[in-house]
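Q: I'm writing up a methods section and want to include an example of the input and output format. Could you take the sequence below and give the corresponding predicted C-alpha cells, formatted cleanly so I can copy it straight into the document?
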Amino acid sequence: MLNQIKLFFDEHMKLPAPEEPSQEKLQIARAALLLEMVTMDDKIEAIEQETVLALVQKSFSLSLEQATDLFDLAEEQRNQAVDYFQFTSLINKSYTLEQKIELIESLWKVAFVDGDLDMHEEYLVRKIADLLYVPHASLMKTKHRVKTDHS
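A: Here is the clean output for your methods example:
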C-alpha cells in the first residue's frame, strides 16, 4: 500500500527539474548588461556601443551580422527589464566564477573605453558583481587590469 502511495506521488506530484537557460538567453543577458553600461553616464557614445558589439562578437564567436542581431535583441530586453535580476539569475545558473569574472572585466572595458569612469558606471559594475557573487578582490583586480590597459 505504501509503495502505491509513493508511486502515485512520484508520478503525479513530482516537481519539474529546473531548466537550464538556453545559450541564446545567456547571450542576451550578457549583452543586455553590457548595453546597460553604455547608458549609465547619460552619454551614449559610439565608441562604447562599438566596444559592446566587439565584445559580444568575440565572446560568442559571432559574425558581425549575428552580433548586431543579438545587440538589437539585448537592447529590446534591456528596455523591458525592471531590474538586473532577470539577467544575473540566468548567468548565475550557468556561468562558472571565471566566466562571471570575465563578464565583470568586459563591463570595466566598456566603462573605461571613453577615458572617463563615471561614478554611475562604477556603481553598476559593483552592483552586477554583487549579484553574480564575484569576490571583491576579483572585482578590484579586474578593474586595475583594465584601467592599466586603457591608460
